[in-house]
Amino acid sequence: MRKQIAAANWKMNLTLQQGAQLLDDIIAKPHDLKEDQLAVFAVPFPYLAMAQQKIEGKKNVFVAAQNCYSKKSGAYTGEVSVEMLQSLGIQYVVLGHSERREYFNESNQLLADKVNICLEYNITPIFCCGEPLSIREANTQNEFVAKQLEESLYHLSAEQIQKIVIAYEPIWAIGTGKTATSAQAQEMHAALRAQLATKYGQEVADNISILYGGSVKAANAKEIFSQPDVDGGLVGGASLIVDEFVAIINALK
Ligand SMILES: O=C(CO)COP(=O)(O)O
Fold first, then answer.
1. Which amino acids are annotated catalytic?
2. Which residue range is the domain that position 120 belongs to?
3. Number of domains composing the chain
4. Mean pLDDT value of segment 217-232
5. Which residues have C-beta atoms less than 6 Å from ligand 1?
6. From CA 201, how far away is CA 214, in angstroms rounded?
7. What distance in angstroms lies between residue 9's CA and the mean position of ligand 1's atoms?
8. CA-CA distance, 123 to 142, in Å (whole number)?
């Protein structure tokens, strides 16, 4: 049974004190995470240790990094290795967010290297994919996203691919208030799962969680998460607001 996941992506927001308060407030609210449901908080690097401490002993709650480097160690000033993350007890890393692809020129090949090193260290990549508006308008989004997966993930074995979480985030829906309709999300998620099934078989494809991201909020989470191939969300803006994110966690199916 694949996991249903509510993942917060704080991006480059909040001070340490604000982040600590937000986590305290969210954790204090009642939520009812079932066996196969997870809450994940992708926080800025300097807050990882604080966040790990806050969630200690909380069942099905994890902290994620928002990025890592593709090399093991060495003279890479300013970068953070997966070994460093592992030494903090971090088990998830967001990879290939569209903001990193756009502003930091992350290519599908670089992301393949990052995926590999994460798996080597037993850290689960939350691999982001998604098309810009021009591609959606040309109705070539399925091919575009298929290529992202093909170039970054399809060198993996069937055993390895089941360790990946995929997050579909149409760029035109990120931070814009413009959500993909639940039908648009379901259509892409089903296409991704069908593609994974063609490559790895249906059983493997059925084990892979595919999250939706892009203007998810309390008001639309239930509808989006209710789609059969949508296994939760990767949430930006609404993850910074206590009641919003708690409602999103509680909207997991
Ligand atoms: O990029 C996102 C999550 O990674 C989505 O951001 P918003 O929820 O702010 O649209």
1. 97, 169
2. 4-250
3. 1
4. 97
5. 9, 97, 169, 174-175, 213-216, 234-238
6. 29
7. 7
8. 28
